[in-house]
């Protein structure tokens, strides 16, 4: 399913958060969304899973306006893994993952054998099988991320939206998660802070700066030292990756020339 963001703007409480965003994510590709804190990444993602209504513009799914879909239709099209985690409910990891089947069920019917099979596969894909019987509230941050990924996969949607899914995750799971989502046939939009994860796993990236789209395209062409310094206020050096392309070596700019970026504090 192709995702088209057309002329999207968001104003909240008189403040412009997003300005005329135009972006296409082709079917089956993974788009990494990068930007400093306050750049509008989370707000953009919230418009995709309909928590935030745009002030102007549209989100199209294969040409259909997302706003025209009913809640169940939208939930069958887009699954989200968000930063906000509510953990004060007495559910196991399996029961949390099963919530992803709700858009596919009728009324208050019991979970079917097919539902349970889908959940078991999603837990396995997310590396969370061992968490199935654990209380979600007692899990670590990284363990919760695994279960929440399983819930999103359980929803079996053609579009997957992930808001900084590697937060609280150890290095192994960061790569495991990104490999899992990039290897699916889903259209994926993922907000990231780690540029090297984007270089390794994303087909394309979009860079936001103060609510505006300032770059979009192939990660190895877009993420160069000039852009990284301009948007993130960090010095970088491109280092050839033996597997192809490059990775970035990052460091704080020299203190003699460093000024605080408008979107972030001192690095």
Q: How would you describe this structure in keywords?
A:
single chain; 267 residues; alpha/beta; six-stranded mixed β-sheet; four-stranded antiparallel β-sheet; 9 helices; 12 strands; globular; disordered C terminus
Structure description:
This protein is an alpha/beta fold and 267 residues long. The protein contains nine helices and twelve strands. The strands form three sheets. It has a six-stranded mixed beta sheet with strand order 6-7-8-3-9-10, with helices on both faces. It has a four-stranded antiparallel beta sheet with strand order 2-1-4-5, covered by helices on one side. Helix 4 (113-125) packs across helix 5 (141-154). The protein is globular.
